[in-house]
Structure formats: C-alpha cells, structure tokens
C-alpha cells in the first residue's frame, strides 16, 4: 500500500517519540512491501517561534494533501505560565482538529499483563481492563465563544452541542461496542448541564438502532470515581470533549503510564494519530520519554487503513518490550539505561526478526551483547 504520512512532531518530547514511531513504520513498510512516504511540518510553540503562527498554512495544506497525520505533542511552559498570551501552541492542535473535522477521538486503555504491578492501583482491580474511550473532539466548551470583560475580571467559555455533533460520534461508539463487549457508557453531567441532557436524549434515541448494545449513563463525577474503583465495568465510553480529556488522563493510570496511551482522531475525510500525553518539557532531549504511545498510535494508523497484521506485529513488539523491561524509566524499575531510542530500536528489530530469541534482544539492546 502507498501512504503519504504527514509527521507533525510539535513541541518538547514530540520529535523524540514520533521519530521512534516513524522508525517502526519504516520497518513495517520494508517487511510488508509497503510504500510509506513521510513529510515533516511544524506545529505548536516551535511554529510560533518560526512563523508567529501555531498552525502555519503550509502545515495545514500538507495535512489536507496526505493520507494520514502522525502527531507528536504540543505545549511549552512559557505559555502555560503566561495567561495573557494571545497566541498559544494549543491553538495549533485545536485548529487542526477543527479544520480537518476530526470529531471522534478514540483512546484505548488496557491493563498490560507485564505492567500490572507498576500501576499505583491494585492488581486485582485493574487486571483485565479493556476500555475504548470515544471522546467528541471538535465541539463543546473547547470551541464555544470565549469572553473576557474589558476590566479583565469576568470570563466565560460557552459550551454548545448540536444533535448532529452528538449523533455522528454516538454511531461510531455503538458500532465499536458491537465489535467488543456490547456496552456503551455515556458520561455526562445531565443533573446540571443542558448540553448533557441533550446528549442523553440523542444517545438514548440512537441506542434504539443498536438493540444488541446495553446503554448505561454515569455522571462524570461518579465516573471519575468508578474509573479507579472498578474499571472493568467499562467497555466503550462515550463522552463530550472536556470530560473525555479529563477521564482519559485518569484512565491512563490503569495502564501504568500515560506514556503508553495512543489515540486516533477520525473525521469524514482525514485521520490523525497522536499520543494522549503532552510535551513533557522537563524530559525534552534526555532520552527518557516513553515512545510507546506514539508507536501504538502508528499501529492505530495502520489499522485505519486495514493493515491489521502489520498493526498486530507492532503490538506484539510492544508487548515483548514491556515483558523484557526494554522500557523507559517511567515504567522500568529494573534497568536505568533504556532510552527512548532503544525502545524504538527494539521494536524495529522485533519487526525485522519476530522469531529471534529474547536473550539476544535483551543483551543487544542493553548494550551488553557479546555478539555485536
Ligand atoms: C489532549 C490534550 C489536548 C486537549 C491539549 C494539548 C489541547 O490534553 O489531546 O488530551 O485538551 O485536547
Ligand atoms: Mg488531555
């Protein structure tokens, strides 16, 4: 298959982790005889520095002309600590999502066998957890009108949703549930918010078309508690933009590290694949950022184009790296010298030689090999 992929590393650790994902995709292309072409472009703080625009037109044009986008991370502390900044890196990502119509953000969360002891949550609570979060991505409070009074003392953000915006992602969530454990949980705040009541009404109507799927409702405050009390109760979670942002960071604790969580942002025409983590400025350039979220985002990209065996091989490589502790310090208590690049190389090598022995892999990648 021929695929043109736009690579938008963005800020902080973005370039370190996306370059591992690209490495892995190149290995897949050569093993399976695909033709993947990668083109890089700037977005975020780095684009503000260069062009005074977090999403330069050139980047947007590239995204519109490619088959898929691999996104790194966005954000820089100099903007986080300056509430008066008019131009912010995050605007680049939000505009990109909006311009490309990426309304559905799919965030899979699972408890990896090899990492059950690494989560701060008890093993018996998280073991077997497998959740797919469907977060609405182009509406709600993120995109509603923003106001600040002239004297700077009153501010507001409008939260707005239309029936159409709810319907299109709800259908995707129900269809996903049909392929999984046949349950959708809608997370909202319908006891307080009008938008949430519209979500409940519309989603309940749509549920009529999916008789084989159970629809459940949870208020977001309760859902936040349930997520760490009993995460196994969830199959597909459907929720609006802001609640999805918050609940997915919380859910990442189940996996053991936010550095493991991948996502796909899908629209009618375009698709973008991005880790859920941020730009982790403190780690930039140190080789300690976990590239697995970016590598698994690349696997989701392949699945999007029906390349399931290819994606599966990446997942097997990730599993093996976790089992052998070929992992960055966020989840590695055994070795302290496994860098971002080593994890990428290990998975790349696994793709090239899936049947090689564990021992060789471990030794080679820890630099202890007597063979090379
Ligand atoms: C995410 C991030 C973004 C969001 C930020 C960087 C704007 O937190 O993708 O979860 O809030 O959507
Ligand atoms: Mg977030």
CATH topology descriptor of the largest domain: Isopropylmalate Dehydrogenase
**Main beta sheet:** 10 strands, mixed
CATH superfamily annotation of the largest domain: Isopropylmalate Dehydrogenase
3D shape:
globular
Under the CATH scheme, which architecture of the largest domain would be assigned?
3-Layer(aba) Sandwich
| Straight-line N-to-C gap | 34 Å
Q: List bound small molecules.
A: 3-isopropylmalic acid, magnesium ion
Helical proportion, percent range = 40-55%
Radius of gyration: 21 Å
Largest sheet strand order: 2-1-3-12-11-4-5-10-8-9
Strand content: 15-25%
What number of domains? 2
Tell me, what is the CATH class of the largest domain?
Answer: Alpha Beta
Low-confidence region ranges: 368-372
**What string gives the helices and strands in order?**
EHEHHEHHEHEEEHEHEHEHEEHHHH
What does this structure look like?
Substrate binds at residues 97, 107, 135, 221. Its EC number is 1.1.1.85. Keywords: Amino-acid biosynthesis, Branched-chain amino acid biosynthesis, Cytoplasm, Leucine biosynthesis, Magnesium, Manganese, Metal-binding, NAD, Oxidoreductase. Pathway: Amino-acid biosynthesis; L-leucine biosynthesis; L-leucine from 3-methyl-2-oxobutanoate: step 3/4. This is 3-isopropylmalate dehydrogenase. It is a single chain. The chain is an alpha/beta fold. The protein has 2 domains: 1-104 and 269-372, Isopropylmalate Dehydrogenase; 119-255, Isopropylmalate Dehydrogenase, CATH 3.40.718. The protein is 43% helix and 17% strand. It contains 14 helices and 12 strands. The protein has helices at 14-32, 45-51, 57-65, 77-80, 89-99, 123-126, 163-179, 194-207, 220-229, 241-255, 292-304, 308-323, 340-352, 358-365, and strands at residues 2-10, 35-40, 68-73, 104-110, 130-136, 146-148, 155-157, 183-188, 214-219, 236-239, 264-266, 271-273. Strands 2-1-3-12-11-4-5-10-8-9 form a 10-stranded mixed sheet, with helices on both faces. Helix 1 (14-32) packs parallel to helix 13 (340-352), helix 9 packs parallel to helix 10 (241-255) and helix 12 packs across helix 13 (340-352). The chain starts with a strand and ends in a 7-residue tail after the last helix. Residues 245, 249, 276 line the site of magnesium ion.
